[in-house]
Amino acid sequence: MRDVARDAIEAVWRGESRRVLATLIRLLGDFDTAEDALHEAFRAALEQWPREGVPASPAAWLVSAGRYRAIDAIRRQRRFEPLEDPDAEVDPASLDPAEPELLEDDQLRLVFTCCHPALAPDAQIALTLREVCGLATEHIARAFLVPVPTVAQRIVRAKAKIRDARIPYEVPGAAELPERLASVLRVIYLVFNEGYAASDGEALTRADLCAEAIRLARQLLRLLPEPEVAGLLALMLLHESRRAARTDAAGDLVLLADQDRSLWDAERIAEGCRLVETALASRRFGPYCLQAAIAAVHAEAARAEDTDWPQIVGLYDVLRRVEPSPVVELNRAVALAMRDGPAAGLAEIDALLARGGLEHYHPAHVARAELLTRLGRTEDARAAWQRALALTRQGPERRHIERRLAAL
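and the corresponding structure tokens:
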């Protein structure tokens, strides 16, 4: 019985602890108090479940136990009195179980609270990874290549901001939902991109970030089945499907056109494409759905030369109407070069750089250098590659540019 109970407790910790924490935050009104209560609840479970058996609703039991212990602790602090029986056990039969629906709602509340626009972007990311995903502060620091005290301070400040500004612990109403949901999706995608970016950081840790972002998007889609949530999940799945082919044995970048497509994850591609189709069929799609649709066109091409570039240009035309930005224009120019030839794409990129806004964005200079190389304008290409190298910090990307320069 003891081993069975311990196995059950470990399984509940992995699968339910963040749901339990979310409900305890709602009930107790404070992040730190709720975290202490969560650990106290699991300590109580370790003491009681081996003797009394695993309760029918472990998460509800833990919520009740955590709340019981937290309220007891608050009373002792206020009265400065010791508890008469510090070893008193929790009687699950005497406590009100938390409804499963409330546990689900509380998870959604926690996501929106951690991603509230009143918090700084880096604080939103750190707090989401810590409280929603359950990652240790040390793990987050390693993933983002920053000192542990820096991450810890961001989390502390974010919690204080929520408390002092009285940020509501709630899912926004219909009027606020689109804007607030966009903030949540942005945080999730930032987490994914941090893990997906070619880097000299710890490969396993960065892959973990991508996995956490995908898991969080799945959870959000289950709780809030909106087309843009499905679009973001699809976009991340389609990008992640190429992970095994993105770098070679030496850790150097392999461009999309040169990747071994047999290494792509067919299951992720199939799921991503299904999500894209469903989201687009809703006619309520936004930028994530459109970006996912573009990624799906790439994923469906058996060979690079089979890519449907006219369809990709058309999707970028829609995307720049939905969410105009210089980066979208740049990506469209690259697709245009593949459809109409390098001169057409180069003219678009030169016009973009002339307008300003991308002069310090190294992918713009990489794209320009590639097109100049294809046109045989060697000296201009060399200057563009050198400008791109000066703006690039990531090791794998720098090595790629250095190889292209050497080839000239």
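(Above: one complete record from the training split.) The two ends are 70 Å apart (CA to CA).
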